[in-house]
C-alpha cells in the first residue's frame, strides 16, 4: 500500500485518487483476477490497517482507503462464506518499513517486519478472522473506536497537538 498525508489548507483530491488506486483498486484488481480460480477451500487475505479505526490527522486518504478495504473484506466474507471461501483481514499497526521510516511523527509500538510477518502467518494458520497487531496497540485503538465519535475526535485532536 501507499500513504500520502494531507495538508487540509492545500486540499488535494488527486492525492485521494492516487492512494485509493493503489490501496483499494489495486487490491480489487487482484481479487477480480483470482476469484474465478478459487474453489470451495480457498482463502482470501486482505490487508487493511489499524488506521481505519480512528480519525487521524493528515491521514484522511490512507485511513479512508484502509477503512474501505476492511468494509469490502467483510462484505466479501458474507458473499463468499456460503461458497466455502474464507476471508481474513490483516490490520497492522506501525511496521518498520521505508514507508514508515519517512514519517515525521511518533509511531507507538512500531514493530519490525519479522514480527509482522510472524504475526500474519500465525494468524492465518489459526484461522483468525482479523489479524491485528501488535496486540496492546490494536486493543487500545479498538477500545477507543467504540467510544462516542465526539470523544474519538477529541482524542485524535489531542494526539495531533502532541505531534506538533
From TrEMBL:
InterPro entries per the record? NAD(P)-bd_dom_sf (IPR036291), SDR_fam (IPR002347)
Gene Ontology molecular function: oxidoreductase activity
Residue spans making up a coiled coil are none
The protein's UniProt keywords, in alphabetical order, are: Oxidoreductase
Would the keyword Oxidoreductase turn up in this protein's UniProt record? yes
Q: Which Pfam families match?
A: adh_short
User: What is a single cellular component term in the Gene Ontology annotation?
Assistant: membrane
* Family note: Belongs to the short-chain dehydrogenases/reductases (SDR) family.
| Name listed for the protein in its UniProt record | SDR family NAD(P)-dependent oxidoreductase
Species of provenance: Idiomarina abyssalis
Amino acid at each position: 500500500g501507499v500513504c500520502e498525508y494531507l495538508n487540509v489548507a492545500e486540499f488535494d483530491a488527486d492525492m485521494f485518487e492516487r492512494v485509493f488506486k493503489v490501496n483499494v483498486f489495486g487490491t480489487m484488481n487482484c481479487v477480480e483476477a483470482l476469484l474465478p480460480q478459487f474453489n470451495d477451500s480457498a482463502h482470501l487475505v486482505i490487508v487493511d490497517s489499524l488506521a481505519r479505526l480512528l480519525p487521524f490527522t493528515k491521514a484522511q486518504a490512507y485511513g479512508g482507503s484502509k477503512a474501505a478495504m476492511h468494509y469490502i473484506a467483510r462484505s466479501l466474507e458474507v458473499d463468499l462464506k456460503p461458497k466455502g471461501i474464507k476471508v481474513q483481514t490483516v490490520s497492522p499497526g506501525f511496521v518498520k518499513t521505508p514507508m514508515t521510516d519517512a514519517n515525521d511523527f511518533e509511531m507507538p509500538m512500531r514493530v519490525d517486519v519479522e514480527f509482522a510477518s510472524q504475526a500474519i502467518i500465525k494468524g492465518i494458520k489459526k484461522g483468525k478472522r482479523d489479524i491485528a497487531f501488535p496486540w496492546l496497540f490494536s486493543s487500545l485503538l479498538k477500545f477507543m473506536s467504540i467510544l462516542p465519535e465526539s470523544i474519538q475526535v477529541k482524542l485524535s485532536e489531542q494526539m495531533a497537538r502532541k505531534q506538533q
